[in-house]
Amino acid sequence: MSSCCDDPGGFDLAVIGAGSSGFAAAIAAAEEGARVLLVGHGLIGGTCVNVGCVPSKFLIRAAEAAHAGTRAHRFRGIRGHLEFTDWPALRAQKDALVAALRKAKYEDLLGIYPSITYLEGRARLTPAGVDVAGRSFAVPRIVITTGSRPATLPGVEIDEQHVLTSDGLLSRDRRPDHLLVIGAGAIGLELGQTFLRLGARVTVVEYLERILPPADPDISSELKRHLEAEGAEFRLAHRVQAVHARDGRVEVVATPRTGGREKRIVGDAVLVAVGRQPNTEGLGLEELGVRRDERGFIATDAYMRTSREGIYAAGDVTGRHMYVYMAAHGGRIAALNALRGDVETYDETAVPHVVFTDPQVAWVGLGEPEARGQGIDARVSRLPLDQLPRALAALDTRGLIKLVADAESLRLLGAHIVAPEGADAVQTAALALRRGMTAGELARTIVPYLTTVEGLKLAAQAFEKDPAKLSCCAG
Known about the structure:
Blueprint: E1 13-16, H1 20-31, E2 36-40, H2 46-51, H3 53-71, H4 87-107, E3 116-120, E4 123-126, E5 129-132, E6 135-138, E7 142-144, E8 148-150, E9 163-164, H5 166-170, E10 178-182, H6 186-197, E11 201-205, H7 217-230, E12 233-235, E13 238-246, E14 249-256, E15 263-267, E16 269-272, E17 276-278, H8 285-288, E18 311-313, H9 324-340, E19 353-355, E20 360-365, H10 368-373, E21 378-384, H11 389-393, E22 400-406, E23 412-419, H12 422-434, H13 439-443, H14 454-461
Parallel strand pairs: 1-2, 1-7, 2-3, 7-18, 9-16, 10-11, 10-16, 11-12
Antiparallel strand pairs: 4-5, 5-6, 8-17, 13-14, 14-15, 19-20, 20-23, 21-22, 22-23
Helix pairs in contact: 1-9, 3-4, 3-6
């Protein structure tokens, strides 16, 4: 790790934020031969490795293991018993994994790139460059990658003891017995099901009329059915009026949006999972004329440029596709454009979305309502998983696959999956959309038998044929 900083004017690029997007930007710049000042504040590595993707997916897998024994009865001759017994032990294992990955994928990388100088401290942009921890650096180009944090509800006080964000829930001392989740988006559903499988009762309160609002309605409905079968409780189309915490208990006060009596739901912890908000405080954006949108995210164009010349932004702080892989994608592009003069655009074609519930949810492209809302005459095909050999062999037919295509040309517009292994199948659909394939072309693609991705081929065939009337591997 380089130390700071003998020459305050010796940098070609400053990257503000040391998470996934910031590291992608700094490494891309270093590979171009640039001298980079990388400024971090808080735990190096940002959201994903510390309090997001890595710890949550670890717990999701642990909960799946605990839950597996309850579903083993579907195979004759197999008996077993697994149970969750020790939250502190599981949390300690999670923390050890996070620390190891933070060291391997962030801290240790700094020693590999001598042209990157890492400096810890709060940054403030200036007309000449950036101020960090009382020192001024003249830097001609800047990439802002300061990320985001959990959003809160007006009037709801977060104490990270009983009223928690996802950050607090993942590090809580004990597992809640009854977890109340405000928000039925990806984070609320993933963590809600995780704690449900770890033995908690879970009640989800959502302002909108369906869970997972960004997904196609058929997909939301299918997922809800399976979560309810596991015991999740939903209060949809409810507005949260207040949250009270007292004597080790919490109460969510909510009213139906369509009118009706107030409901009071009592538990011992509340997860507030209502989205993310950008980390932009104290950066001096207003003084430099860096424009933000109505939600406070930094506005960027296709080249990741902000409204201030020489300043770029990428990752969650822009509010664009708030996934770690898109943050890294944007960080690399922002750095290269800052150094080379705007040579690459942020590719939003066929971005895959994944939600790690069980069954998993994954989609790419347009949903049916989106397509029709854009005036497209769309056709859809639906393949229940009881038509998929992979699911039949696993005795697990939870889910469906839905394709959306232009009615005349059958060019694929979107693919939507609910399946235990749906996350791995969606990339094939993303490539099909990127290449502009038709349903017929996807239907003629050779895919391995007894895979979830075969469901995409069968769903494509379903535009013209009944999959129930096809033999195994029918072309």
